[in-house]
Amino acid sequence: MSTAVVHFTASAATDRGRKRATNEDAFGYSAERGVYVVCDGMGGAAAGEIASSLAVDEMMRLLAAGDGAGPLLDEAQMAVASANQAIFSRAQRSQRLSGMGTTLVALLVNERRAWMLNVGDSRGYRLRQGRLEQITLDHSLVEEQVRLGRMSPLEAQRSPLRNVITRALGTQCAVTADVFDLEVEAGDLYLICSDGLTRELPDEIIQSLLMGDLSVQELCDRLVAAALEAGGNDNITCILVRAEG
Questions:
Q1: Contact 25, 236 (CB under 8 A)
Q2: Total count of domains within the chain
Q3: pLDDT tens-digit profile of 74-106?
Q4: N- or C-end of the chain: fewer Cβ atoms within 10 A?
Q5: Model pTM score
Q6: Phi, psi for residue 39 in degrees, rounded to 5
């Protein structure tokens, strides 16, 4: 594998969609520290917005403002635990916020190594040499049934239980994020997003929209516009990170 230096460029876009009164998604990133986070909150009243914002703020506070000491992955796992505790403790103190939680998907990059972490059904993808691959696995009832062979992808898509997630930040006193260790190649394009994008656009459409000689901001805007045109039934958020040689 080449040892040439890889630089990363990133951009993000978010929209509340056509059906939701508010945007319960939150995102944050630091290109300098190689930290990118998307969260999709859930809960009544403003609880979803609070949960997702708390998670992003805690992740960025602990990872983006650090001194760079220590393994990035170890730091990230501690940040996930801290974000979970911040949401859980806040909900315990307020009846109005009881039961709130959020999904989380994060991308961490460090030269030619990257990690994706996820809790819930917000997703992470990699586009390499024109092929889009979903890296993360959804923590949702229907997707787990698909993986067990008890439900087809089409049945999962049409199921009234498709919104039920099986793991989230803040709903329990502890949570474990799945971690995916990746080798970075120049030309890779990484996408992390909320399900407001992936519910509206199948993977093959996302792949086609990411092709072409456009900036990462133009590609983000293209994804959000396509999801809105397809229905925009939920909040839509995405971050794109491109590895450049």
A1: yes
A2: 1
A3: 899 999 999 999 999 999 998 888 889 999 999
A4: N
A5: 0.93
A6: -130, 145
